[in-house]
Amino acid sequence: RIFTAPEQLTTTSYDFIVVGAGTAGCVIASRLSENPSATVLLIEAGVSDNGTDSAVLSTPFLAAQAVGTIFDWNYTTTSQVGLNGRTMPYPRGFVLGGSSSINSMVYARGPSEDWDRIATTSGDDGWSWNNLQQFIFKNERHAPAWNNRSNVGEYNPKVHGHGPLMTSLTANPSELDHRVINTTAELADEFPFNLDLNSGDGLGFGWLQSTIGDSARSSSATAYLHPALNSRSNLDLLLNTQVMNLISTGGAATTLNGVRASQSETAANFTFTAAKEVILSAGTIGTPQILMLSGVGPKEELEKFDITTLVDAPDVGRNMQDQPIFFLQWAANGDTLFSFLNDPDAINAALAQYEQNKTGLAASSIVFNTIGFLRLPDNSSLLENGDPSSGPHAAHYQISFIDTFNGNGNQVAPTDGNWISGSVVLISPTSRGSINLTSSSAFDHPLIDPSFFTTSFDIGTAIEAVKTLQTFLAASAFDGFIGSPVTNLTTDAQIEAYVRAAAVTIKHCVSTAKISKANETGGVVGPHLQVKGVDGVRVVDASIFPFTVGGFPQAEVYIVAERAASLIKETWSL
Ligand SMILES: Cc1cc2nc3c(=O)[nH]c(=O)nc-3n(C[C@H](O)[C@H](O)[C@H](O)COP(=O)(O)OP(=O)(O)OC[C@H]3O[C@@H](n4cnc5c(N)ncnc54)[C@H](O)[C@@H]3O)c2cc1C
């Protein structure tokens, strides 16, 4: 059943209350309600993904356009010292499916070493790559592109499972994509081809997989939530309602089984009670905010807003890590998608074709189809103070190839010609930021400070990455195709200035409620994701990762959520 206001609910007590119908929350609510004896309430602050303007969520071609709309929390960062004092928009999904409904749909699980490091960090071998295979397979399955293009040799069917989330390769590989793949044959030692970046071997160059199936975005709402809502009576969804904080409704003060929610700062407050557990899946920003407003957080932070400290948990909202991205552009002498993307008539025709029969350029990923994950050389001076990646087969940075002009910030785009772009993403940054409260009101946005490029490792790695991208595009596979760069970057100082002026978030923030060993004082949640110092609350979302992920985070969040659902079911013998 779906409710759009708290007063519509006919009961206030459920076995489980899941906070946030995002990437993780929809998985949890769907898996827990598989057992008809368990009652589940899922509370989402944002809007439905089936309403006004929702074509922007489901149409693959429009994937990037939900940012900045009613489907986005529309956060802004604090002024970033490492980026010349700039602030920037900080998008997060405000809709069923959360960020999986508005993201760029890249599906990349990252290296096996990421998971083995989480197992070591938490002291729980259940998080190791090998032990997680069952959950990976339970989550995802490969789907053909709409045109059934043969993609033999572009992915490995053996590493894909049988879950509800669909992933696929592009229906329309570009000339640029073929040249990228040819470069991996030409310079195989330096830039090896990787048949499937989802195999646990997260290094090298390969074809990108996107969360698209049946010609539409596959999100945690489409894959998990809607099928569950359509077929079960023990799952209630409450939309447009924000959880403010957790309270004790009797018993020990540290048993936080009460969930306080409201539709606005001035609307009535409601309390719902979980007989078994509350699962916080409000994401890397929402989860630490709710914890702090519940008295679980750094004491000195809570005191600033007269919030009584229930548990002095210094790591709540700390250790925030995100991956910065910036773009470089080159003139191209062959066909690129630039002309299509600058022709409103062609775009309208593609959208009309999609509307009619879900085919054509709007029905799959098109501009961004190939990617490479790379390491610094072993003897790099940047690694003298330690290696922040999860192991010798995990990336420090990533470069990718875009079949059009992709500008940075206010960069003015050309109006004709053909262009391609390369992006650089720092995968294992050492900068650490934070989420802090701005008031004791849940309806005030918190302070979001990713602290981009505040370490010499981060800026040094970005400089290396630019040079690698330049070397890659100088391969003879690109002869006759690549023209002049839009910005000539030759010295380290030029690259550094460019990065500080251009970089923005790729929106991969993690680690504000990080996992740690059961007996460790640091960290926010234990190995089974229970919040330390309180009873009855788990965190299941991207905030639990101890480090940035070596792939793209949504795949990792799904994996965490599938295992967490299984742990919760085990706890309650469901
Ligand atoms: C624009 C964008 C592009 C991205 N591109 C990619 C990509 O291509 N590939 C990739 O792997 N990752 C990408 N990411 C990141 C990835 O989508 C996220 O890391 C991941 O989806 C986070 O999952 P989550 O469950 O932690 O949080 P979310 O999916 O964000 O879910 C949190 C949910 O909780 C709700 N919520 C928050 N606070 C409250 C509250 N107080 N009360 C009730 N509900 C609340 C939110 O509205 C939201 O629905 C992108 C992210 C964005 C924003």
Automatic annotation (TrEMBL):
<keyword id="KW-0285">Flavoprotein</keyword>
<feature type="binding site">
    <location>
        <begin position="103"/>
        <end position="106"/>
    </location>
    <ligand>
        <name>FAD</name>
    </ligand>
</feature>
<dbReference type="InterPro" id="IPR007867">
    <property type="entry name" value="GMC_OxRtase_C"/>
</dbReference>
<dbReference type="InterPro" id="IPR000172">
    <property type="entry name" value="GMC_OxRdtase_N"/>
</dbReference>
<comment type="similarity">
    <text>Belongs to the GMC oxidoreductase family.</text>
</comment>
<dbReference type="InterPro" id="IPR036188">
    <property type="entry name" value="FAD/NAD-bd_sf"/>
</dbReference>
<dbReference type="Pfam" id="PF05199">
    <property type="entry name" value="GMC_oxred_C"/>
</dbReference>
<feature type="binding site">
    <location>
        <begin position="553"/>
        <end position="554"/>
    </location>
    <ligand>
        <name>FAD</name>
    </ligand>
</feature>
<feature type="binding site">
    <location>
        <position position="243"/>
    </location>
    <ligand>
        <name>FAD</name>
    </ligand>
</feature>
<dbReference type="InterPro" id="IPR012132">
    <property type="entry name" value="GMC_OxRdtase"/>
</dbReference>
<dbReference type="Pfam" id="PF00732">
    <property type="entry name" value="GMC_oxred_N"/>
</dbReference>
<keyword id="KW-0732">Signal</keyword>
<feature type="binding site">
    <location>
        <position position="95"/>
    </location>
    <ligand>
        <name>FAD</name>
    </ligand>
</feature>
<dbReference type="GO" id="GO:0050660">
    <property type="term" value="F:flavin adenine dinucleotide binding"/>
</dbReference>
<feature type="domain" description="Glucose-methanol-choline oxidoreductase N-terminal">
    <location>
        <begin position="283"/>
        <end position="297"/>
    </location>
</feature>
<protein>
    <submittedName>
        <fullName>Aryl-alcohol oxidase-like protein</fullName>
    </submittedName>
</protein>
<dbReference type="GO" id="GO:0016614">
    <property type="term" value="F:oxidoreductase activity, acting on CH-OH group of donors"/>
</dbReference>
<keyword id="KW-0274">FAD</keyword>
